[in-house]
Amino acid sequence: MRQIYLTGFMGCGKSTVSHALAKRLNRRQVEMDESLERQAGKPVAKIFEEDGEEAFRRMESELIRRLAEGPPAVVSCGGGAVLRQENVAVMRSSGLIVLLTASPHTIYDRVKGSAHRPLLNGRMNPQAIAKLMEERRPFYEAAAILTVETDAKAVEEIVTEIAAKIACEDSGQGEQQNFTCGHV
């Protein structure tokens, strides 16, 4: 398997988990938002503010295409990367999409101190997070091959679970959306 794409709502642990998983699997780690910030020369929030969400999504799609053709990596995707079907198709053809999940209250606890969440500007509360999560849930679930819940789990526990599920998926014993390879 070439790429491992970690997807999910902001604050579900993609960045933290991707670093640990890349280390465990001896792969390079790519943080999509950081890559896009370097490319644009400004923070994601400024890209949204100055260029708009559509421009950001175009940049994101192009980055996914480049990553798909690059060396094996663990990729921490932006929270909206799976909103475009073209992104999902490229990610699926080049690797495995892993959905990380967490409750709205967990997400809120993780992101409440951040000023770098443009989609939550002016609505940083569990109710607004739950609403946005529900809007995106069908996209995340349709894209994911594997799903791992991150609430109340240590990073190493999450990484171990993902690594075991990937090994199972690689062995041909997992099924899309319905992981059936033993209990991890």
Would you mind describing this structure in some detail?
With 184 residues, the protein is an alpha/beta fold. The chain has helices spanning 14-25, 32-40, 44-51, 53-68, 85-94, 104-111, 126-143, 155-170; strands at 3-7, 28-31, 73-76, 95-101, 146-149. Helix 4 runs parallel beside helix 5 (85-94).
Q: Which H/E pattern describes the elements?
A: EHEHHHEHEHHEH
* Arithmetic mean pLDDT: 87
**Strand order across the largest sheet:** 2-3-1-4-5
The coarse overall form would be: globular
Topology summary:
Blueprint: E1 3-7, H1 14-25, E2 28-31, H2 32-40, H3 44-51, H4 53-68, E3 73-76, H5 85-94, E4 95-101, H6 104-111, H7 126-143, E5 146-149, H8 155-170
Parallel strand pairs: 1-3, 1-4, 2-3, 4-5
Helix pairs in contact: 1-8, 2-4, 3-4, 4-5, 6-7
Summarize the structure.
Helix content is 53%, strand content 13%. The protein has helices at 14-25, 32-40, 44-51, 53-68, 85-94, 104-111, 126-143, 155-170; strands at 3-7, 28-31, 73-76, 95-101, 146-149. A 5-stranded parallel sheet has the order 2-3-1-4-5, sandwiched between helices.
Question: Which terms would index this structure?
Answer:
184 residues, alpha/beta, five-stranded parallel beta sheet, 13% strand, globular
